[in-house]
Amino acid sequence: MRSARSGAAEPMSDQSELRVYGETDVGWCAATPPNETTDEDGRPLIRSDGFTAADPRAPRRRAYDDPDVCALRERLRRRNGLPGLEIVGPDEVERARRIFFRDGFVVVRDLLDPDALETLRAASARVLQQILDIPGFGGRKYVTETARLPHRYSYGTASASRQLLHEPEWAGMIDLATTTPLLTSLFGGDDYWVIGAGGDLCLPGAIEYQTLHSDNRETFELPPERLAHAQRMGIELRKGDGGEETLDDRTRQLIYERTPPRITINFLMSDLTFENGPIRQIPGTQARPGSPPTQADEPEWMRLSTLVGAPAGAGVFRDPRAWHGGTPNLSREIRAMPNVEYAAPWHDAAAFKVSMPHAVWEGLGDHARKIAGRIKTAPGEWPAGAGVMHPLANRRSEAKGSPSDVPGRPQPTR
């Protein structure tokens, strides 16, 4: 049993039984009402706006064989998936680059070999188990994460440190032979940074669509460092009619599109199918000034613009400014997508928070140590909150203030 301070109880089940691929008994809690989220302390509420806005078209009951669920599943069976989804190999660097800058994302297969995939699956299941160990209330099987829809969790925000770079499996993904050449091409060099790692998942029975959103918004600012990045990307800085210091509109737009402040790689633990909650991405929205449509206004084609067909072991390189969102998991399989998040060389240094223990950093290769230099601790220190997972924001805050009882935490050197 873990510390009472973390809010945990006896494990829900043997950890060896929990898998983030293939059929599972986890999920499908009919006692959890549709569209219910929680506040910082776990009190249930329904929200009509923002990130956790209610899905007005959600089934009326969270049960696998509910008629509304069956009807939605059949509709997704016939129509779900982005037509013509391009999936490239890790050696197709130029093709991946073209697709990424065109669409704001690209699916790259075979990023993880079978051993690496199995290692990350086991780690993803182990960390998820910590979340599901926490008992629900009022007949609910699970505690809904603060400000999220039911059966959806973030590996990052559920961590009291907001990151998982204290976990060797997540740290080990930051510099792979299959990903580093692609990142170097997308950033125009190898001087980018790791800024965080986490990812998201949805359990079977996540019947709601998540509102379309951007993880980061374009600021439309062009500091000198970003202009230098643009030139490394081969963009000619053409002047407009407003004088020597003014760029023409076409050049400015090209810079916005091809110098993303961040790039995220989500690694797929299972094949994305029509029914297991595949992420939806709206192509070409990464540098748009407007906001995504609301749940009520989103057209059907956007709800169906999902990455069905992307295989396990692949990764989705995403510009987090692009519109995206979660979709219903009507299957019996957990859909997990652990991630690593990278920042451009000109990204604001104040945005980097310490989250990787020095001991973990020391075990990495040369390039990995270089790009993780802004988020590692000093020798002997441990990131506040690292190792505690909890769905509720206030319990995470408590744990972050008192991390000394975290299991497996190295003792500071004296």
Structure in words:
With 414 residues, the chain is of the alpha+beta class. It has a single domain (4-218, 261-405), classed as q2cbj1_9rhob like domain (Jelly Rolls, Sandwich). Helix content is 24%, strand content 12%. The protein is built from eleven helices and eleven strands. The strands form three sheets. Strands 3-4-9-7-11-6-5 form a seven-stranded mixed beta sheet. Strands 1-2 form a two-stranded antiparallel ribbon. Helix 2 (93-103) links the parallel strand 3 and strand 4. Helix 2 crosses helix 5. The longest helix is centred in the first third of the chain and has 19 residues, at 114-132. The chain is globular. The two termini are 29 Å apart. 48% of the residues are buried. Residues 1-16, 403-408 and 410-414 have low confidence and may be disordered.
List keywords for this structure.
414 residues, alpha+beta, 7-stranded mixed β-sheet, two-stranded antiparallel sheet, 11 helices, globular, disordered N terminus, disordered C terminus
In a few lines, what is going on in this structure?
This protein is of the alpha+beta class and 414 residues long. It has helices at 67-79, 93-103, 114-132, 168-171, 180-187, 224-232, 249-258, 300-303, 358-362, 366-371, 393-401, and strands at residues 36-38, 44-46, 87-88, 105-108, 152-154, 193-202, 262-267, 280-281, 315-318, 324-325, 335-343. It has one domain: Jelly Rolls, CATH 2.60.120.
Through-space gap between termini: 29 Å
Unreliable stretches: 1-16, 403-408, 410-414
Strand content: 5-15%
Number of strands: 11
What is the makeup of the main sheet? 7 strands, mixed
The percent range for helix content is 10-25%
- Estimate the global geometry from the Cα principal axes: globular
CATH superfamily: q2cbj1_9rhob like domain
What Rg do the Cα atoms give?
21 Å
Order of helices and strands: EEHEHEHEHHEHHEEHEEEHHH
How many helices in DSSP terms?
11
**In what order do the strands lie side by side in the largest sheet?**
3-4-9-7-11-6-5
Count of separate structural domains? 1
- Name of the CATH architecture: Sandwich
Q: Under CATH, the topology is which?
A: Jelly Rolls
Average pLDDT taken over every residue: 91
Which CATH C-level class is it? Mainly Beta
Structural class: alpha+beta
